Amino acid sequence: MATVTGLFERALGDDWDDLHPAIRERYGLTAGDGRTAVGRGVMDRVDRNPLALPALWLGTLDDFLFPEAGTHVPFTVAAEAFVDDAGREALFLRRRFDTDPPREFVDTLRWNPERGCLADYFGHHGAVVADVHLGVEGDALALRVGDQWLRAGDRFLPLPGLLSARGTLRDRYDDDADEFRVEAEITTPILAPVGPVFGYRGRFENEFRATGDDRVGSSLGGVPLPGTDG
């Protein structure tokens, strides 16, 4: 039987082995594992730019951005691998922030062989799609958001540079504290002079549970992938 490779391992190639073992275990999920990774912790800070509030409010309609900010915000993050309707390995992530009101940030990842990177579908319906490029910094996982599109069915409309966002995420494991540390930031060319659009920094512990009837569950089935021509 052929070995199934997780999305992050496929994207990183030989660099996968440079990650901290705890990072590899958490991000090495495949659909056949029958496990869901569940992290629980606290966001030390959740920040947003007041000038970006209209766009952040719009993101709440499909659970991929939100306008609240705060400190010491409890949160959970669940990651579940599945096979989509087109037979492709995929990974669904759901983050819940206990702001007032509570908010969620969900996305679904797939490998895109046409572009040689991951494709990230934001929200439950994946109307915004982005290339995601992975790297290793020390033994930490580094993620960078690249080109982006608006998706309408099978069609992709490239977002021009001024309207697109630039996102980074860094996930590392702190051996002394025995916990994961995560920080993420989203910027745009228009608002760059006055700071990030949205970001968070926090820490969490991870456990694995059997994937059963209480699946995290992505609503995205066999959606198309953006091609090299955008």
Describe the fold and architecture.
By secondary structure, this protein is mostly beta strands. The protein has a ten-stranded antiparallel β-barrel. The chain has one domain: Lipocalin (Beta Barrel), CATH 2.40.128. The termini are far apart. A hairpin with a 4-residue loop joins strand 9 and strand 10. Helices cover 9% and strands 48% of the residues. The chain has helices at 7-12, 21-27, 53-59; strands at residues 35-48, 70-83, 89-97, 103-112, 117-122, 128-137, 140-152, 155-158, 166-174, 179-187, 198-210.
Rg measurement, Å: 17 Å
Measured by DSSP, the beta-strand proportion falls in over 45%
Kindly name the structural category: mainly beta
What topology, given as strand order, has the largest sheet? Answer: 1-2-3-4-5-6-7-9-10-11
CATH top level label: Mainly Beta
Please state the second-level CATH architecture: Beta Barrel
Query: Would you identify the regions where 5 or more consecutive residues have pLDDT less than 50?
Result: none
Please give the alpha-carbon distance between the first and last residues: 35 Å
